[in-house]
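Notebook B, p. 112. Complex prediction, attempt 2.
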Amino acid sequence: MERYLGLPVRLLLALICVLAMVTSKGECVVVVAVENSLGSLCKTFPEDIIFPEGFPSKNATSVGVCLLVKPELTQSDSHSYIASFRTTHVLVNVGITSSITLWLEVNTERHHLNDSLKAEAWNMLCMGLSAAHDTPTPIPEEEHPHSKAYEMWASLQGVTLDVSLGANITAWEEDVWVCVGTRTSWNASFTGFVTGVTLRIGERELTPDNCSLLLDANQLTMPLSESWKTRGPVFALEEDLLQPCDTPMFTLVLREAWGYDKALRWCRSLGGHFPIEKEVTASLVISNCTSEEHLSWTTDASEIAGSYEATCPVLLAGGGVGRRPCLSELECSLCLVPFGLRYTLFGPRTDFNRHYRLSEGQDGSFFFQGTTSNITLSAAGWTLQSSLHRGKLHLNGSWGVMGRRDWRSVYNPQASNILTFTVCNAIQFASNDGVCLRRSERCDGYVQAPDKSDEKECGSRRLLRMDESYDSSVMPFISVEGARYIYYRLSVNVVKKIDAEEDSATLELAMTLKWEDGRVRFVDSKIFYNYFPCHLIWTPTIMMSAGNINGPSVQPAANITMCYFFKGFKDREEVQLDDHLMGESCAEIGWVGRKGVKVLVGVRLEGIALSRGRYVTRANISQSRNFLASYPCMLRVSRYPFGRYMCKLTFVTMHHKVHWKSKDTNVNPHTIKYDGDHDLLDYRLENITLHVHDRVLTLTLHLIGQPDYHLISNFLPSALMFFICYSSFYFPIAEFSGRMNVSLTSLVVLLAFFSQATNSYVKTPYYKLIDVWYVLLLLLCCLVVIANGIVNSLRVQRVTAHSNLAKKVLRAKRLNNGCKIVMPILFGLLVFVFVLFATDTI
Ligand SMILES: *[C@@H]1O[C@H](CO)[C@@H](O)[C@H](O)[C@H]1NC(C)=O
Ligand SMILES: *[C@@H]1O[C@H](CO)[C@@H](O)[C@H](O)[C@H]1NC(C)=O
Ligand SMILES: *[C@@H]1O[C@H](CO)[C@@H](O)[C@H](O)[C@H]1NC(C)=O
Ligand SMILES: *[C@@H]1O[C@H](CO)[C@@H](O)[C@H](O)[C@H]1NC(C)=O
Ligand SMILES: *[C@@H]1O[C@H](CO)[C@@H](O)[C@H](O)[C@H]1NC(C)=O
Ligand SMILES: *[C@@H]1O[C@H](CO)[C@@H](O)[C@H](O)[C@H]1NC(C)=O
Ligand SMILES: *[C@@H]1O[C@H](CO)[C@@H](O)[C@H](O)[C@H]1NC(C)=O
Ligand SMILES: *[C@@H]1O[C@H](CO)[C@@H](O)[C@H](O)[C@H]1NC(C)=O
Ligand SMILES: *[C@@H]1O[C@H](CO)[C@@H](O)[C@H](O)[C@H]1NC(C)=O
Ligand SMILES: *[C@@H]1O[C@H](CO)[C@@H](O)[C@H](O)[C@H]1NC(C)=O
Ligand SMILES: *[C@@H]1O[C@H](CO)[C@@H](O)[C@H](O)[C@H]1NC(C)=O
């Protein structure tokens, strides 16, 4: 049951169909709407379901697809696909051009036909392949073993078309893909409706002579079964199709003196068209409404009225076609309207029926009949009334009932009721004078409607709908316990150079936050991004601090904030019947009993007591913030210029029990991809991680000291200096002043290095590894000086006995040699311990 509840549109439209069944004895048929060129619907038929054993055989030589297609009058692409079927060996496509003429394609060979589909009417279209019955020259065995020649066939409204395409197929051992619309993302789908999709197998052309058969075998179900893979804006709905292939027509007489253009618009707003010569039957001439010789305008799109000189085609009362100026006004004109069209009333009046059908009165007049309401024309104009109450709405003038009108109450003429009465279908929008446009054309920045009304009342004021009581300081999170999440995505665009002396990091960050706000509805939202000003709604407050939560607070600079609502293809919308602009509001279905979030309201709809879900919308709102954050890293660089450091920035939501949650990953902490320069002057950036814990989000820069430069500029020269110092041990012991000179000079140079280093690198109140290095090296050098002094003092020691002289020299030499060995050991020990510190081993 749950699955069915999640489908608002389906339910609503199903209801409409139930109602339609009440009003007329129609049958409900599942129809798929392809809203624009990105939509498509595909299904795989497993091989064992389609092909009988040993296909092609005597009584099964042909395979094909039939469907009923209702294309929109305007198609967005020059070549769009209606349907295709494919196995590994062959791909068959059928499509239409922008002027709705057919083309066919087998593999890559395309063939254009002169036949065109009827726009906004059901067309029975079949296409397939059949084994060529008498192949004159069998295909050479060695080239294509078992390959057989197939010819393509196609039919429109049961009439076979002349196609000269074919393919050679080795075997039918594959599953068959059947697609409505394009199979690939780079080609375009047609815009319109499809039903009666069937895969057929048999002999020769498999065109049924009666299209009701297609509806019986329709592969589309409500809801669409799992085996259909939808892509883009495609949705299923239910309609009552009486006789889709041969729809009877009402002949309406438009009794006003109008020029071609205005009369055409009036006729089209009723969902009809001018009669063409072929359609002029006896019955048409009987409904002859004029004493003039010109009976009616007729359709011929070759010339459309512009200047006063332009002429347009007319039907003559006596038969045949003539021409007269398009601007000249005819006494009356005829309009053929398919039987069974559904007219809908949009607007804030709930006391009248929403749906009507066209009915013919006596004397050739017509009116609109709902289950309890009707819309009739009298001498004073159009009247909307109901049999349930005395409320009556009135329109002056005898035409112009279609479209967006200001209906006045008969009893209270001051009150204005803007209602839209239209024949437009689920993927259309009605302009003010009732012309149907594609929904995507509304508010797209281009004026398309003849009355230029499709770009009116657009923009963020209309986009965003909320109750009067909306308070932007109140949090939107409705659920009492659990899920109160702010979804985040954080990306680091630039990490500026970090100077160890300044100890501050500067990051350019892009943060996208997403949260649910059940109180906001979106009307007429576009696919993808819908921007609006952030101050209109509640937005999360986020504090930034350096280090941990208690660190110094960080103020962002260069602050760009945008709020938007992102709509994907899957977010089907609910058409708002009480919005005269026919808006759709993006809604998440709710149903009573699910955590008490939703309300169910019983509505008396169309005279039948039916319960209808009233939805609380749960739209996801996004906010993207781009800002520059400068903050102190507060690093303790005691291992400078070595070591690993972490420079942290913390984000805290200032809302009780609202938690961070990642949009993309559950790994905690996770690494952020950073493509910029990892060399940050004094440090190298190893990686950037994000750690989430409840309300706290921590961004950490993992830094490593960059000792390379210091190795050359500090460690190597100082070590060399020490070696020079040490080399004094190798001077003759008698050369005291020489030894002293060398070691002392080295000591002085080391001191100079040290003071230079402490002046030019990070100043800290504590010792850094580099300071320790110098100090120890100085100490060693001092030891060398002292050792030299001791060696000399031993050498020049006053002796009493001659035998002691040799002993004295020997002792001095021994000490010198001892130093020669001990000093390198000490130095090695120093380097060893130092390396251990530098590599973080201890
Ligand atoms: C073809 O003929 C065989 C037997 O003659 C029969 O079993 C089969 O159902 C037929 N198939 C079709 C598609 O008519
Ligand atoms: C299609 O129309 C073109 C030009 O209008 C014509 O030359 C051609 O013969 C027609 N083809 C068919 C098959 O009717
Ligand atoms: C099928 O094979 C025959 C014989 O090789 C060849 O003449 C014909 O052009 C092929 N047809 C297609 C559509 O490839
Ligand atoms: C579909 O796309 C392919 C590749 O871009 C192109 O070659 C082909 O002509 C397209 N088909 C139609 C009908 O435009
Ligand atoms: C088509 O078939 C349906 C039932 O299958 C039948 O009622 C109808 O009369 C048929 N129409 C035509 C034109 O044969
Ligand atoms: C219909 O038109 C014919 C030809 O102009 C005219 O003679 C006839 O009177 C008209 N009939 C009616 C009912 O107006
Ligand atoms: C329209 O409805 C009113 C009130 O129910 C009724 O009096 C009138 O006869 C209806 N008109 C038509 C043409 O059915
Ligand atoms: C519309 O009708 C009302 C009466 O119902 C009348 O007072 C008013 O003048 C009419 N307006 C026009 C523009 O005809
Ligand atoms: C950044 O922008 C937000 C939203 O516009 C605003 O509330 C905040 O005060 C701004 N911060 C700074 C430092 O400009
Ligand atoms: C909002 O976004 C989250 C995360 O992407 C998702 O789980 C949730 O279903 C979305 N809610 C709605 C109403 O789309
Ligand atoms: C990021 O770098 C730190 C420090 O080197 C390391 O501990 C951590 O494992 C790294 N994280 C990832 C995901 O590589």
